[in-house]
Design brief:
- By secondary structure, the protein is mainly alpha-helical.
- The chain has one domain.
- The chain is built from 5 helices and 2 strands.
- It is elongated, with a radius of gyration of 17 Å.
- Keywords: Membrane, Transmembrane, Transmembrane helix.
Length: about 120
């Protein structure tokens, strides 16, 4: 059984629009974190209402959030590509979930910026 061509996968308008939206939100997250949070020795990375700040890290630890988003884009679209040939709806669902995940990461970035101002 042959592989489904990647160019046909990327010609699907829904797939390419989901990919574009996910990349746009991820780039927005990178830019927002780089602009909103100034480099400091200690940055708050996690906060709970019960314990307050419970995770402090460096500026490079903060950039793991958009890096995680980039890895999830690659992973989700790779899985979507493999499902697209036989289980098209599942592949499209994977593609549709990716921008939503990126929006959740962007909201987390807003919370981190608010916490570190």
């Amino acid at each position: 059984m042959g592989r489904f061509p990647v160019r046909l996968f990327l010609r699907d308008k829904f797939v390419i629009s989901s990919l574009g939206a996910a990349v746009f939100v991820n780039v927005a997250l990178w830019v927002y974190l780089l602009v909103a949070i100034k480099s400091a020795e200690n940055i708050f990375l996690h906060y709970t209402i019960h314990f307050g700040v419970d995770l402090v890290g460096t500026y490079s630890n903060l950039l793991m959030l958009p890096l995680l988003g980039l890895v999830l884009i690659l992973l989700n679209f790779t899985i979507a590509y493999f499902f697209y040939d036989n289980l098209k709806r599942l592949g499209l669902l994977m593609a549709a979930a990716t921008p939503l995940i990126q929006v959740f990461l962007l909201v987390e970035g807003f919370f981190l910026a608010f916490l570190n101002r």
